[in-house]
Amino acid sequence: MPGSSLWLIPPKDPFNRAMQTQITSMVPMRFAPNKPPTFIPHITLTSHINPALHEHDAQAWLDSLELNIEALLAANETREKESTDSASAEKRALEAGNLDPPAPQAPTAPSDPEKAALSEDASISATTPAPPSAPSDPTSPPTSGPAPSQASQATTSPALPIEINLHELEAGDPFFRKLALNATLPSPGLSALATVLRAQGCYGNDIETAKSWEKSEYRPHLSLLYADVPKDEARRKIPGVLQDLVRAKAILKPSRDGTVSKGGSIVLVPTDREIGQWKPIASRPLPEVVWKLNMLL
């Protein structure tokens, strides 16, 4: 899979362990002698993130991300204003005949790549201008503004509660969702979180492009099997897998609405590597998550 991904994972609790058991042993056993790869239980929030965004400090990059749309829009407006003010200050200086105006508060990056590199070395605190419109290829490096301040990082949180109701076991054609528990839609909190992270990870902070992606492409699910087997074969295994899940749910003793876990983390995973190396390289706690298990038999 090209690029890195952001996953939402449950806390290390009985629900997490139950799903890991399904992924590691129970489901693969039904597809013997195939030996499908294993992975940690997760909901993908977004993928196709250019690794260049986080290669210097994965944890710092993850911590810098806004987690709600309004906060990102406000940050975009601030960057745009700083860029406009910088351009106006330079124009006034040139009109006054000062060909060597003082450095503005938020200088724009030089167009020449070599000068840009020198500029970055000379002033690590320089602020980049507002990002351009979204690139057509989400794996291309997006141009984004600077990370929020530490105070912003400490206070930003999703604007809506995040509820993940896993309600349907489905067989699919794609390798990465051969068997998956689909999350109920609409799920406003989950969709908003995926949208704001997609905007920052793939579209240079462009919220509108991310909203279009969410509406047309985002289908949250918790995969139980990665495999190169025909979809019909996977579909025939659904009744047995469902029985295993029902037994696991009974052991978890969910509440009346199906809640089996609360909390979790957003993790950054280098999914451009081999599947066996799909391990989190950065993590950010997200307590505002409710996990429910309500499979339809």
TrEMBL record:
Name of the protein this chain belongs to: 2',3'-cyclic-nucleotide 3'-phosphodiesterase
Region of interest: Disordered: 76-155
Compositional bias (Pro residues): 129-145
SUPFAM superfamilies: LigT-like
Example of a GO biological process term: cyclic nucleotide metabolic process
GO MF entry, a single one: 2',3'-cyclic-nucleotide 3'-phosphodiesterase activity
Protein source organism: Elsinoe ampelina
Alphabetized InterPro entries for the sequence: Cyclic-nucl_3Pdiesterase (IPR012386), Cyclic_Pdiesterase (IPR009097)
Composition skew (Low complexity), residue ranges: 146-155
Amino acid composition bias (Basic and acidic residues), ranges on this chain: 77-94
